[in-house]
Amino acid sequence: MVDQSHHLETVVTGVVIEDELRFSLAELCRETAVHAEWIFALVDEGILDPQGEDPATWRFPLESCLTVSRVIRLQRDLGLNLAGVALVLDLLEEVEDLRQRVAQDSA
Question: Which pTM value belongs to this model?
Fold first, then answer.
């Protein structure tokens, strides 16, 4: 029989560095192996939303790398144009939001 009267709880705190990481346009291009002109098109379509006034000062959050990878796969696998990709990404985000709401309501 296990004695549960002496339950120890450890609380760990810290900072998630990756959430704070920001890429410049050149860094995002290097990390994702795409040309800057293509990133411009993603920004124009609303797929990416950099912080900053112009391309020289743009900063992209870490999740932009994942978004670029998703765009590449959607275009390659489904033959979608950027408008179609933007729609699919919006729908996927909406589905995820709905799943989270259902999970919260179920808890």
Answer: 0.75
Residues ≥6 apart with Cβ < 8 Å to 23: 31, 59, 60, 61, 62, 64, 65
How far apart (Å, rounded) are the C-alpha atoms in residues 79 and 82?
A: 10
Q: Does residue 61 sit in helix, strand or coil? A: strand
**Picking from 9-23, 29-43, 50-64, which range would have the lowest pLDDT averaged per residue?**
9-23
Going 32 to 37 to 38 to 39, the CA torsion angle's sign is: positive
Euclidean distance between CA atoms 17 and 41, whole angstroms? 28
Map out the domains of the chain with their CATH numbers. 20-106 (1.10.1660.10)
Between the two ends of the chain, the Cα-to-Cα distance in Å is 31
> E-assigned strands of the chain?
22-23, 60-61
